[in-house]
């Protein structure tokens, strides 16, 4: 955009140096934990003097952490399995209705993502307390699904907007009912977007901390809840090992989602 | 000419519309169950004593406490501070990315998006490691002789602000970058060919055309920032207490559901006020644009 100003080299250098500093600021906290996680010392020295896998052994050997990992993985999977079909149906509904109805539905669905987590958390805590459901997986699950639905919608709405609806019309006129049209035409063609939506819904649940902190307890504590508690008490390098593993998962998911976006134009032709 | 429509077709269209509406029901139901009902429950709870009787005592107690007002001030300081720093850091970064070649820009955007998807607790831990008294940043500062003593960078307001900016910056960047990407490069070329300096182009072409993106980004930053909990709870070290950590303390430490609910309602009111102010601001901006177009 600024190529009309080739003579302003100094300004360009200043702008890009500033941008590089800001990007370093963004990357730094994610990167710094990786070498620490392989440290042999229980001091957080940087760079570590000796390397080991003891913090990974610590993590995988701890019954508490493993129970939390199991809870988080189950929650993430269930969240994705519920949120993505709900989001797909809602997106089909919004796409076909259009206009004001679609805008109102979207407004309602987005409400949870702009509501402070702490409000959803204590509200859900009160509701669940009245039903004696605090500490159950169910309580955390509904909280995670409601946050994952808008995330899935952000992926699926544009995908449906690009979708060629004539195919559904054709199938319908040949006698396929809607269930069949959705299952055999929409779902197969949106499979890459659905995969992205599933992964992002999974990550949303995995990362969700505030609802977990208030509503999950005991055996059903999630990874973020346990990390939150241990960060408040002390800085344990086990968290560095967990963080490194977690970031590796995130990188894989982001790469998959990015590849899907790249494959979109070629899919059209 | 009036076309007569077969009533059977009309009924069909209505039935189809009802069917499409019904597809949204599962998602809407879960929002009602897990978001709207809980918020209503907070309102109900705020009028209840521990014994379950109706009272306005919770409001009297919370609103007369100095802690509440200092929590409100802290919430605003953190949110506005985060917004200001996001604008200062994010706008030039967006400009740099928008002026890069698409291939480079996409690669760099991936690096910006990685922290966005990194778990909040992972990032908070990273900042603890970096900002502690014997952390990396202080080691670099004292090692290079810039400061004689380690600086207090975490377990205080500074650390909380750093963590919040780090969380919000990629989210702020997205709409600003999108707005700048959409600017027609010919406008910049035209301005340049007529003798505008780089500064003039940025001031009179690029900034006005990305104002919408900066505004959207600012709205998102404010709305998210007022409810931040994890970052102040960990990086604030108990010394930084916005409404969110007060709510947690009322609920978890004091088992005082009434006070927690009233504080929650204050947060809701604050959100609504910010929403109304932003809508008004947008209307004013739009009027300005119309006035400018007619001038």
What structural class do helix, strand and pairing data of chain A support?
mainly alpha
Radius of gyration of chain B: 25 Å
Low-confidence stretches of chain A: 265-269
Q: What is the N-to-C order of secondary-structure elements of chain B (H for helix, E for strand)?
A: HHHHHHHHHHHHH
Q: Which CATH C-level class of chain A is it?
A: Mainly Alpha
CATH architecture field of chain A: Orthogonal Bundle
Number of helices of chain B: 13
CATH architecture descriptor text of chain B: Orthogonal Bundle
- Biggest sheet overview of chain A: none
CATH superfamily of chain B: MetI-like
Summarize the amount of helix of chain B as a percent range: over 70%
- State the total count of DSSP E strands of chain B: 0
Number of strands of chain A: 0
The helix/strand class of chain B is: mainly alpha
Number of helices of chain A: 12
Molecular structure report:
The complex is a heterodimer of chains A (269) and B (295). Chain A is mainly α and 269 residues long. Chain A has a single domain, classed as MetI-like fold, CATH 1.10.3720. Chain A is built from twelve helices and no strands. Chain B is mainly alpha-helical and 295 residues long. Chain B has one domain: MetI-like fold (Orthogonal Bundle). Chain B is globular. Chains A and B meet through helix 1, helix 3, helix 4, helix 5 and helix 6 of A and helix 1, helix 2, helix 4, helix 5 and helix 6 of B. Chain B: Belongs to the binding-protein-dependent transport system permease family. CysTW subfamily. Chain B: One of its GO terms (biological process) is transmembrane transport.
